[in-house]
Amino acid sequence: MLAPDWKDYKILGSGDGLKLERWKSVTLLRPDPQAIWRATVDYSEFDTHARYERDRNGGGRWIVNKPMPDEWQVSWRDLKFIVKPTGFKHTGLFPEQAVNWDKLSALVESSVRAGKPPKILNLFAYTGASTTALAKRGAIVTHVDAAKGMVERARRNCALNAVPEGNLRFIIDDCKKFVAREIKRGKTYDAVIMDPPSYGRGASGEVWRMEDDVYSLVELCAQVLTDPQFFLINSYTTGLQPQTIANILELTMPRGQTEAYEVCLPTERKIALPCGCSGLWRCV
After folding, report:
1. At what angle do helices 210-222 and 175-185 cross, to 10 degrees?
2. pLDDT surpassing 80 at residue 58
3. Which of 4, 124, 182, 193 has the highest local Cβ count within 10 Å?
C-alpha cells in the first residue's frame, strides 16, 4: 500500500542503507535499513540541510550542513503536522502512515454519517498523527503513550488542526496497564489502533518485546470492545510479516474482514520503499 497524496514530502533518492527526503523545504538524509539496493542518486550532489550519523555504540546525531528551523510544519490533504528531528533519527511523523489515515478516516466518516461517532482507543499513539486525523473526522479518541513529550506534541498537532477538545482525551501511561484498568472500570470502545514498539522498557523495569507480548495485548484490548467497528495493528518490527498480524486479528476478533499489507512510500525511481506492515480488521 503506497502512501497517497503527499505534496510536502518526497523521497529524492534511496539505497546504500539511506533515504534522501524533502520535508517541505527541508532536505534530510537518514539511515533506512530496508534500502539495501545500490543508491539511485549521488547523495553528495544534493545540498542537504542535515544528515543523521549513527554512532558505533548505538544512537547517533544530526550533522547540520546549513541553517534549518528547529521545527516546521508539513501538510497532508487538509491536515497539518509538526516536524521536528529527534536524537533517534525520527522526525515525529511517519509519512507512510497516510495509508492508514486514509483507510481509517473513511471508516470514521461512514460511522459519523450514520450518527455513531466511534470511540477509539489509540495505543502507543506517539505524536498523534492518527489521533489528529480521526478526531478531526469526528471520532472520540483516547490517546495513550508513556512518553510525556510525545503526548505534548500530540496535543500541539491536534490544536494546529482545530480538533474539538471534546473529541480528545490524552493519557500518559503504560498502554497495557491502562487497558487493564479500563476493563476494571467497565470502560468500552468501538475501535482500537496500536503501533507497538519492537522493544521497550517500562518505568518499573518491565520489558516489552513485540513478538512475545503483542498477542496477549490484543487479547486484552478485545475485552474493551463491545460492538467493535475496527482494529488496526501497525508494526515496524523487522521480520514480522503482514500475515502474522492478520493471524493475530483472526484469532482474537469476531468474524469480520481482515486485510494485512506492507505500508510503503513511493520513490523518485517509481519503486516502493517498504516501511513496515499493518493489519486491519473491520466488522462486516
Report:
1. 20
2. no
3. 193
Which of 175, 183, 182 is closest to 208 using CA atoms? Answer: 175
Note the pLDDT of residue 48: 98
Query: Residues 273, 32: contact at Cβ < 8 Å?
Result: yes
At residue 203, the pLDDT reads 67
Q: Please give the C-alpha separations between residue 142 and each of 94, 145, 156, 179, in angstroms, as whole numbers.
A: 20, 10, 15, 11
Contact 145, 124 (CB under 8 A): yes
Contact between 127 and 86 under an 8 Å Cβ cutoff? The reply is no
Reported residue count of the chain is 284
User: How sure is the predictor about 57, in pLDDT bands with cuts at 50, 70 and 90?
Assistant: confident
The answer on pLDDT for 73 being more than 80 is yes
- Whether residue 56 contacts residue 261, with contact meaning beta carbons closer than 8 Å, is answered with no
Instruction: Assess contact for 249 and 231: CB atoms under 8 A.
Output: yes
pLDDT over 90, % of the chain: 94
HEC letters along the chain: CECCCECCEEEEEEECCEEEEEECCEEEEEECCCCCCCCCCCHHHCCCCEEEEECCCCCEEEEECCCCCCCEEEEECCEEEEECCCCCCCCCCCHHHHHHHHHHHHHHHHHHHCCCCCEEEEECCCCCHHHHHHHHCCCEEEEEECCHHHHHHHHHHHHHCCCCHHHEEEEECCHHHHHHHHHHHCCCEEEEEECCCCEEECCCCCEEEHHHHHHHHHHHHHCCEEEEEEEEEEECCCCCCHHHHHHHHHHHCCCCEEEEEEEEEECCCCCEEEEEEEEEEECC
Start-to-end C-alpha separation, the chain? 22
Please list, in sequence order, all residues whose beta carbon lies within 8 angstroms of the beta carbon of residue 69, skipping any fewer than 6 positions away: 26
